[in-house]
Amino acid sequence: MSFTNWCQIMAGFAVIPGLTGFYSFHSFLFPYYLRTKKSLHLLLLSVVVAGIATLAGMLLLTLQFNTTYLENDGISGVIAIAIPVAFIALVNGAAGFVIRGFEAWFHDIKLKAELNHKNYQMELALIKSQIDPHFLFNTINNIDILIEKDSIKASAYLNKLSDIMRFMLYETKTNSILLTKELAYIEKYIALQKVRTSNVNAINCIIQGDPGSKMIAPMLFIPFIENAFKHTNLTIDGAVKIIFVIGKKMVMFECENLIEQTPQPEEQSGGLGKELMERRLALLYPAKHHLLTTFGDHHYRVKLTVEA
User: Fold this and answer.
1) Extended strands (E) in 118-266
2) More confident: 68 or 143
3) Alpha helices of 37-132 — where are they, by DSSP H?
4) Contact 57, 12 (CB under 8 A)
5) Strand-strand pairing, 203-208 and 240-246
6) Cα dist from 281 to 44, 78, 153, 178, 187, whole Å
7) Rounded mean pLDDT of the chain?
8) pTM above 0.70, yes or no
9) How many CA atoms within 13 Å lie on the side-chain side of 270?
10) What is the CATH number of domain 130-307?
């Protein structure tokens, strides 16, 4: 048998049926099954595709060798050739089906990742836009008054406000930042809140542990802190208490504020709402965080632990 004849036999026996089966399953049957979810229809169509692939292969063999299997070997000869040809078509079809399934799976993973990233960016943008406008107004107003009394101190506070706005505009564009930067931002925010009161005992902030090179999602804690200042009276001692405990593999954050009346259902849950913050945490730290909020004895408490 010459090499040319061998190639002709392989084309009819394996190549044509294999390609027919592969691309039929890959391009048509898998999308059809994905739309309909009908297994019986898929099985019937698989038999049809195998039959068409077998006929195509046998027709090619017949045309190439100018003979028919019915004339030479009868029905038994046709069956002897058709069964392995159909098997080759089905095996290649199954391979095409599986490959298309993996392609769809990877596409879904990529799409979900893109959607999650877009959701994250939208939620982060929402957080950035939710900084209390009253805080900005009061801070600027207090700085304006302070300019006449102590221009040096007023300038320092104005620089802190500038740093806060710069942080919100530029530092939060990445998915994570150094914990040291986040803490510096929070300290400046607290310093500006202190401008609102003459009570030096109203606000307590404690940071325990070394942040080192730990990374954290930007503006992860500030919604809770902002909310604490929004729902308290800074003329009272211990109105706001903030604690950070930094461990080797985790960061524990506690925020407690004194409130003089029971909060409404939608209040005291964060400027963004507790539900939105929980969604953001689930997106950023799936199975790697724990959030607990409690209210009692006129104190609202938030405890958040994240792995970092």
Assistant:
1) 177-178, 203-208, 215-216, 240-246, 250-258
2) 143
3) 39-65, 69-72, 74-129
4) yes
5) parallel
6) 47, 65, 37, 18, 22
7) 80
8) no
9) 25
10) 3.30.565.10
CA distances from 11 to 61, 63, 91, 110 (A): 8, 12, 16, 38
Question: Encoding tokens for residue 218?
Answer: 């930007």
- With a CB cutoff of 8 Å and minimum separation 6, the contacts of 153 are 146
CB count in 10 Å sphere of residue 284: 19
Going by their DSSP bridges, the two strands 289-296 and 240-246 should be labelled as unpaired
What is the residue extent of each domain of the chain? 3-124, 130-307
Enumerate residues 6+ apart whose C-beta is below 8 A from 243.
Answer: 205, 206, 207, 208, 252, 253, 254, 255
Q: CA angle at residue 163 from 177 to 214, to 5 degrees?
A: 20
Question: Where does the chain show beta strands of DSSP type E?
Answer: 177-178, 203-208, 215-216, 240-246, 250-258, 289-296, 299-307
Q: Which amino acid is at 141?
A: N
Query: Residues 6 or more apart from 133 whose CB is under 8 A from it?
Result: none
**Contact residues for 18 (Cβ-Cβ < 8 A; gap 6+):** 53, 88, 89, 91, 92
- pLDDT > 80? residue 297: yes
Please provide the distance, in angstroms rounded to a whole number, between the alpha carbons at the two ends of the chain: 70
pLDDT of 288 above 70? yes
If you ran DSSP here, which 8-state letter would residue 209 be given?
Answer: S
Q: In the 8-state DSSP scheme, what is residue 208?
A: E
Beta bridge partners of 306: 251, 289
Q: What is the pLDDT of residues 192-235, one digit of tens each?
A: 888 878 898 999 999 999 998 999 988 889 889 988 988 899 98
Distance CA 101, CA 95 (A): 10
Say how far apart CA 131 and CA 139 lie, in whole Å: 12
